[in-house]
Write a structure and sequence with these properties.
Elements: H1 5-9, H2 21-28, H3 33-52, E1 56-57, H4 59-67, H5 73-90, E2 94-95, H6 97-106, H7 116-128, H8 136-143, H9 147-154
Length: 157
């Protein structure tokens, strides 16, 4: 892991296990397989990271954090740490979905995992440029953000 600069940035390295029966049933019922597997995997990543932080996260709390992480372990870890901070301030010993939802809503992370910058970016493309095309330099100027921020922080998701 240390030899790979990408994997070295990930706080929790985990293997993706075989699909659970419920996941297989969901796929057979027409759910998008990558979303079903990713959600369950990210929930396990959140649960493991919580144990490393000595934080008790209920399954529904892990689900809520994973749901808003856009299928990215690094984002899930970042959101988990922010939720932990809110839970500490609120005096909550266990992070349930309610605590995770309150915390992430206060941080302006919506149900899709989009934050305020993501929404500004998408709104600009949809409303001002009528769905595009629009160049990255134009977006950077309109959002008052450096081109690198657009390319490396917003656009990958």
């Amino acid at each position: 892991v240390e030899d790979n600069p990408i994997l070295a940035r990930v706080e929790v390295v985990d293997r993706i296990p075989a699909a659970e029966p419920a996941e297989v049933e969901a796929v057979c019922a027409g759910a998008a397989p990558q979303l079903v597997v990713a959600q369950a995997t990210i929930e396990r990543v959140v649960a493991r990271a919580a144990r490393l932080l000595d934080l008790h996260v209920a399954p529904d709390g892990a689900h809520e954090i994973a749901r808003r992480s856009r299928g990215t372990p690094r984002i899930a870890g970042r959101l988990l740490r922010r939720v932990r901070d809110f839970a500490t301030v609120l005096g909550e010993e266990v992070v349930h979905a309610r605590v995770a939802d309150q915390s992430l809503t206060r941080l302006e992370v919506d149900a899709l995992g989009l934050d305020a910058m993501d929404r500004r970016y998408l709104t600009m493309i949809a409303d001002i440029y009528k769905g595009g095309p629009v160049g990255v330099e134009t977006l950077a100027a309109g959002l008052s953000e450096p081109r690198d921020t657009i390319e490396e922080v917003i656009e990958p998701y």
